Amino acid sequence: MWKLIANAVAFNLCWFGLVLQGNWAVPLVLLWVATHIVLQKAPWLELRLIATVTSIGVLTDSLLVQTGVLVFSHSLLVLPLWMAALWISFATTLNHSLQVLRRSRVLRILAALIGVPSSYLLGSRLGNVELGLSLPATYVVFAVTWIFLLEVFARLPFYTANKNNASPRFTSETPS
Length: 176
Hints:
Blueprint (H helix, E strand, L loop, with lengths): L1 H20 L4 H13 L4 H24 L3 E3 L8 H11 L8 H4 L1 H22 L2 E3 L3 H20 L4 E3 L6 E3 L6
Antiparallel strand pairs: 1-2, 3-4
């Protein structure tokens, strides 16, 4: 339980650091992520998950930038480095503090409808990003996008410990 709480706290510290400090926080976030990976029972599986989620997330947010949903003051049509680092740090939660999302479609939908849009909206008030659409339109775009993303992430090859805690394994069950 403490590991899950520590993972959630670490991600939130990364989120605030990146949103408030931008690229200045990237080295600390990458240090956290490297430490996180090294501490895993199956570091290569965790690294593969992080790389996959980050790639999907960066492509998605890049599309949101290209379509004018997200606007960054210091770049024209390119996602800033700190946003990529935010995706890297978010990916560290999927096998840990957010693992419950894999098991529950209802929780994924609630997270997509409430948590994620709130995070982007708060980030726009605190940080280096502006919203290019009206508040209701932005909310709908984020909610629909994240319903899709969380479904995709729930189907990525997560791992769990065997019942006897021997070694991690891929799970093959289909999430609900």
